[in-house]
Amino acid sequence: MTASRVLVLNSGSSSLKYQLLDMADGSRPAAGLVERIGEESSRLVHEPAGGAKREQLGPIADHDAALKAVAAELAADGMGLDSPELAAVGHRVVHGGTRFTRPTVIDDEVLAEIRALVPLAPLHNPANITGIEVARALRADLPQVAVFDTAFHATIPDYAAQYAIDAETAARYAIRRYGFHGTSHAYVSRAAAGLLDKAPEDVNVIVLHLGNGASASAVRGGVCVDTSMGLTPLEGLVMGTRSGDLDPAVVFHLARVGGMSVDEIDSLLNKKSGLLGLCGDNDMREVLRRAGKGDEAARNAFATYVHRLKKYIGAYAAVLGRVDAVVFTAGVGENAAAVREAAVAGLEELGLALDLEANAERSSRPRLISAEYARVAVAVIPTDEELEIATQAYELVTQ
Questions:
Q1: Which of 1, 78, 378 is nearest to 207 (CA)?
Q2: Which of 2, 165, 290, 377 has its CB 3.0 to 4.6 Å from that of 295, i.e. a possible disulfide?
Q3: Please, what's the b/e burial string for 175-204 (b: 16 or more CB within 10 A of its CB; e: otherwise)?
Q4: 61 to each of 14, 15, 46, 55, 58, how far by Cα in Å?
Q5: Higher pLDDT, 189 or 60
């Protein structure tokens, strides 16, 4: 029996998302989520393809127990971790630093290096490491592959990646632009070329990944040349709870004048800012609902969100020189027609214009929403980070 399946794991601090993908036929035999790990109210939702969704409620003590519970659900459908059809486990790892610029088979040395990168991603890499350790313990013989959020952006030239600070200090503390959401940007930029019936190397694309976290990228001929997130996922666009770009002196001001500690400022900018900070809601659906009823705070938050989007579209048009497509993806990008309309409005001189009827259409398929006369295509492409991780992992282990 050919081993053609990849189990993709996305391990968070208190959650574990998973998908089982079959690379031979493109099917997804199973998917699910374990949430609130470590709490009395833990919940596991398992969805086998073609079968009824199953839900398990009750305490799940840790990630070890969570993955064992997932393995049991998969085994109940004849797809357990001991299956000979399983070729690899693909792990999402948020930060690869400058060391990891492509998918990598995990061994003890690789795991130690991922652990050494924890200071660059203290909220994410530890959880990713936990998922890796648990999976390796359950199937020590199975290839475990790390696919890094930062890897797609490793091609950004030094002049775009470096910050204009003392070079020695930057080198000592590994301070540079890394970028995130790389698997999404890789998948969507390639899919955009396909939608235009062109090869990726012949297309320049601006990708707007708009979810609770949001990032933009400039992709020239399939290669990322700039992205909005930086050393951490805090920089760039206005997000659900993150501020995005701001004057660094705001931090000094809050410390000196506001008496806030580093941890308090960190929490403010990452967890209490963005849409949430501006209007009290981080869900774009609620922001739009309130704005539609005339709520001034929500209208102001939406205007700030869109203004930042326009700035990055314009900036990346300048970076690329020629733009073939602007693509919206992720939860907000795929579903919020009002965001797409507002972001493109007024950019006719850049060759952008929407077909408003196509933009308003609700669909889960990749599609063009630009006006026929527009010089630059505008598209909505649902992202598929799990497929990208599975594809990269499978290609690596079958080489």
A1: 378
A2: 290
A3: bbbbbbbbbbbbbbbbbbbebbeeebeebb
A4: 10, 11, 18, 17, 10
A5: 189
Q: Over the stretch 14-31, which tens digit does the pLDDT of each residue have? A: 888 999 999 999 899 999
Q: Tell me the one-letter amino acid at 68.
A: K
- Residue given tokens 């969570």 in the structure block: 66
State how beta strands 223-227 and 214-220 pair.
antiparallel
Torsion of Cα atoms, 284 then 288 then 291 then 295, to 10°: -50
Which residues are identified as catalytic? 149
Q: How far apart are CA 293 and CA 308, in angstroms?
A: 23
Under the banding of pLDDT at 50, 70 and 90, the label for residue 38 is: confident
DSSP label at residue 354: B
Rama region for 216: left / alpha / beta (φ>0; ψ in -120 to 50; rest): beta
Residue owning tokens 């030239």: 157
